[in-house]
Amino acid sequence: MACRTVPVEELVSKAKKEFEQNFGTQPNVAACAPGRVNLIGEHTDYNDGFVLPMALPMVTVIVGRSTDNGECTIVAAVPEADAPRKVSFHVPSKQPLLPGSPKWANYVKGVIANFHATGLISGFEAVILTTVPLGGGLSSSASLEVATYTFLEALTNNKSKELQDKALACQKAEHNFAGVPCGIMDQFISVMGKTGNALLIDCRSLVAELVPLQDPKVAILVTNSNVHHDLGSSEYPVRRSQCEEAARLLQKPSLRTATMQELTSLEGTMDEVIFRRARHVIGEISRTEQAALALRVGDCEWLGRLMNESHDSLRDDYEVSCAELDQLVELARKVDGVFGSRMTGGGFGGCTVTLVKESEVEKVISHINEKYSKEATFYVATPSEGARILKL
Ligand code: GAF
């Protein structure tokens, strides 16, 4: 069976109770931001390409209230088992904020440091809870960053004028405080997600188009491999620089403007690994544009084929898959009624995304449960709303 997603209201009540227990008073500000699943367009965002993610119903929630003591005190559900759940640090006007330990607090500190109205933060107390699986490749960190930013907007009564700037500030937090040179996809969809829609995001212009996902007979099944290989953090920057190298050899500002024909003309002269990395990115950008079209015309067979090609390219050319993700994809593809299946997110563990007839979801789940070498977790994903301030 697929997991039930705890509704936002339930998570907020839990957070309110925790707040009372920890701070002896009631919170008066609350915000949330979702995780995401990417349908297609993997490792294209930092190449100025297209991505096609949707926001999930799983969210990170923050409840809290202002103080005027210059201190930020946060209690959180944390991924690091031995990390403290409660941290305190000073507001940035006293002294610049710096990353440190525990690691989870760096996402929050980074956002505070990049908040557009930092000067208005006099201090706060807050509780953070999440239903986004931590480290599962569904953007738990982006949802924490964007929830923090949205919380600060509510706390200071100072909303961002441009939503793109909000996403960029959260991306900068991840670069500078978590040391991950990520693209813009995760923060963007967490800010801008729309109920009932995927978003075709042009990561060069930062303009997005809504792509409706409305066929009730088709489901998006997210399968968590429940493995997390540490390789992800070290290989990501390597892939990024390999793409930059490919663009340099092709004499392009980024791989977005390179064609397959131009790349092929360099086959044999270009380093073989760099060639394959570029082949993935150029192919994936085109697949993503086609996938948006396939969704618009309701052609699930076409979309499924593109998803399968995307996975194979990520496995063979980009080399960011792993045995568990490959196995999950192969198992899903064997079930009648599955249009396509692929890994989603950065790779080296995390989740797969499968496009399947709604009536066949349980069949996919039992087939995987029977054959998968580890234990998987399942979520039926409905395209949900981006970050928002919540009423208490
Ligand atoms: C991670 C990154 F954070 C994103 O920016 C993106 O590059 C993704 O991996 C791969 O598509 O989630």
UniProtKB/TrEMBL annotation:
Molecular-function annotations in GO: ATP binding; galactokinase activity; metal ion binding
Domain GHMP kinase N-terminal span(s) in chain numbering: 106-194
Domain GHMP kinase C-terminal: 294-373
Pfam families in alphabetical order: GalKase_gal_bdg (PF10509), GHMP_kinases_C (PF08544), GHMP_kinases_N (PF00288)
Stored Gene3D superfamilies: 3.30.230.10, GHMP kinase, C-terminal domain
Any single GO BP term: galactose metabolic process
Location of the Galactokinase N-terminal domain: 17-65
Alphabetically ordered keywords of this record: ATP-binding, Carbohydrate metabolism, Kinase, Magnesium, Metal-binding, Nucleotide-binding, Transferase
InterPro entries referenced in this protein's UniProt entry, alphabetically: Galactokinase (IPR000705), Galactokinase_CS (IPR019741), GalKase_N (IPR019539), GHMP_kinase_C_dom (IPR013750), GHMP_kinase_C_sf (IPR036554), GHMP_kinase_N_dom (IPR006204), GHMP_knse_ATP-bd_CS (IPR006203), Mevalonate/galactokinase (IPR006206)
A GO cellular component annotation in the UniProt record: cytosol
SUPFAM superfamilies the UniProt entry points to: GHMP Kinase, C-terminal domain (SSF55060), Ribosomal protein S5 domain 2-like (SSF54211)
UniProt similarity note: Belongs to the GHMP kinase family. GalK subfamily.
Name of the molecule in the record: Galactokinase
Originating organism: Cloeon dipterum
